[in-house]
Design a protein that fits this description.
With about 350 residues, the protein is α/β, with parallel strands linked by helices. Helix content is about 30%, strand content about 20%. The protein has a 9-stranded mixed β-sheet with strand order 5-4-6-7-3-8-9-10-11, sandwiched between helices.
């Protein structure tokens, strides 16, 4: 066959809405994109929150559901290992998920240059070996020595990352700086060529407003979110973001009961869950979760497992759709399980 292969529109993949999100309404499945913002506004912390959500299946920011779980590959160019560890510990504790079970692989080299062929080759080989569901590179400015304002110099780097995404079916997240004064849209404030803004399928932007941190969400193929206020908390384990209480209350449609959310969370888990893990994944108050677990146990829908954890009872497991088997040896690389919108 000469030339490029082709397919008819009917032969192209049809992906239902429930399978379009890696993290509901925040990041599309297998999307490339940018977490951007002004200096010192928490870009790296937000990227790590996404990493924990994808690696464990817990909701990002304790609110936005993750469709299954999979390995995350991370390179933090500006932060020492102990700082990355502290941040991940804080986020894991806030999300009520075990820190020592995080499925995150941290690239352990002092530098990684995307404008150097040898480093691109090593990164590609690492992606092929790890098979991550999400690749995070933080920040872009430390990953090259090209002129970010020159589209002709930036485009090959972005093209390489898009090639990784398509070849290995992984999402790619770049952390990138933005100017303090930009255009009417947050993406227009990203430093460097407009190629960066155009490249992203899902982009998250952070900015400070009257001592508050505000997140804006933008997608190529879906409606974005705007002006979501975040607050920084630290309970002694490390810093973590969470939605401002008012924002969380305003974005809480009652689409499922606590019992339904608990059953779905347990069904999607690969092993029995503790009460703390159930509370995080069901995004409900502790008292409501405790009462719902007692009711579900009495009804025979869930049962107590060793070490104070819970699993579906046999009869319920037969009724509840199960997560698909992982493909290519990577957890969560099959079709994601439909999940309810943000509770």
């Amino acid at each position: 066959m000469k030339g490029f292969p082709t397919r008819a529109p009917m032969e192209l993949e049809d992906r239902p809405r429930a399978q379009q999100w890696m993290v509901d309404t925040l990041w599309s499945e297998q999307a490339v994109g940018i977490v951007g913002g002004e200096p010192k506004c928490g870009k790296s912390l937000l990227a790590l929150d996404l990493a924990v959500a994808v690696a464990t299946g817990v909701p990002c920011l304790r609110h936005y559901r993750s469709a299954g779980s999979g390995t995350v590959l991370l390179f933090a160019a500006e932060d020492a290992g102990h700082r990355v560890r502290k941040r991940l510990q804080g986020i894991a504790h806030a999300a009520a998920t075990p820190f020592d079970e995080l499925d995150i692989a941290v690239i352990d080299v002092p530098t990684l240059r995307l404008d150097q062929r040898s480093d691109r080759q090593r990164l590609q080989e690492t992606v092929e070996r790890i098979e991550p569901r999400l690749l995070i590179l933080d920040p872009l400015v430390r990953l090259h020595s090209v002129d970010e304002n020159a589209a002709g110099e930036v485009a090959p780097i972005l093209g390489f990352l898009r090639e990784l995404q398509r070849r290995f079916e992984t999402a790619v997240l770049l952390v990138h700086h933005a100017r303090k004064s930009g255009g009417s849209r947050p993406g227009q404030a990203l430093r460097g060529s407009s190629e960066l803004h155009a490249w992203g399928d899902s982009n998250l932007y952070l900015r400070r407003r009257d001592r508050k941190i505000v997140m804006t969400v933008e997608h190529r193929d879906a409606q974005g979110l705007s002006d979501i206020e975040l607050e920084l908390v630290d309970d002694g384990y490390g810093p973590a973001f969470r939605l401002h209480r008012k924002a969380a209350d305003e974005d809480r449609p009652e689409t499922a009961t606590v019992e339904q959310r608990i059953v779905r969370a347990i069904a999607q888990a690969e092993k029995p869950l503790s009460k703390a893990q159930i509370r995080s994944r069901a995004a409900a108050r502790n008292a409501s979760v405790v009462a719902a677990i007692e009711r579900l146990t009495q009804e025979g829908r869930i049962e107590r497992a060793p070490k104070g954890r819970y699993r579906l009872a046999a009869a319920e497991a037969d009724r509840e759709p199960q997560p698909p088997a992982a493909t290519n040896g990577s957890a969560g690389r099959g079709v994601p399980v439909p999940v309810p919108r943000n509770p």
